[in-house]
Amino acid sequence: MTVNLKETRIDGGVVYDGPFLKVERDQVRLPDGKTSHRELIRHPGAVVILPLLPDGRVLLERQFRYPNSQVFIEFPAGKIDPGEDHLACAKRELEEETGYSASKWRFVCTIHNAIAYSDEHLELFLAEDLVDGEQKLDDGEFLETFTATVPELLEMVRRGEITDVKTIIGAFWLEKILSGSWTPA
């Protein structure tokens, strides 16, 4: 037996319209006929790059994240511009943030990291055959890069040094890809 789980928008709209995010508050009809409200963040989407160096090490970043007031360890990532192709965005972000470019790219998966309150989606790409170049950070962007082996990366996850969800998911995908258990799409 299939249960109706769908909520239907009745009314609502944008309560905040910023240059990066939009916040909406909607009135919805629940599956049982009652009404409720939903607040959500509209996000343009982003890419995440899993950069694999020729020696098997991965390229990571340390970056201060204001909402949590701490430095996080992450894979390179960035917002998709309006109308921008996802792979083109990944290539641009890798070069801007790290200075590296890659000659081999594979789509890994799409993840939705905050489904209770946001429509944000993250497109993960594996970047291989990396060549070093010059970083081209955006104005006001500050980060440092470093490398780690996949076992070291997984140990940082296990110890709680990496808590960023996109990086944790990317680390697990990398482990499966490199072991031959999983193949990117």
Automatic annotation (TrEMBL):
Domain named Nudix hydrolase: which ranges?
41-170
Report one GO cellular component.
cytosol
- Single annotated GO MF: hydrolase activity
Cofactor(s) the protein needs: Mg(2+)
Query: Reaction catalysed by this chain?
Result: GDP-alpha-D-mannose + H2O = alpha-D-mannose 1-phosphate + GMP + 2 H(+)
Question: GO:BP terms for this protein?
Answer: nucleoside phosphate metabolic process; ribose phosphate metabolic process
Q: Where are the transmembrane segments?
A: none
Ordered alphabetically, the record's keywords are:
Hydrolase
Query: Which domain of life does this protein belong to?
Result: Bacteria
Q: Which Pfam families match?
A: NUDIX
Q: Which InterPro entries match?
A: NUDIX_hydrolase-like_dom_sf (IPR015797), NUDIX_hydrolase_CS (IPR020084), NUDIX_hydrolase_dom (IPR000086)
Show the PANTHER family listed in the entry: NUDIX HYDROLASE DOMAIN-CONTAINING PROTEIN (PTHR11839:SF18), UDP/ADP-SUGAR PYROPHOSPHATASE (PTHR11839)
Similarity annotation: Belongs to the Nudix hydrolase family. NudK subfamily.
Name assigned to this protein: GDP-mannose pyrophosphatase
Q: Which organism is it from?
A: Massilia yuzhufengensis
Lineage summary: Bacteria, Pseudomonadati, Pseudomonadota, Betaproteobacteria, Burkholderiales
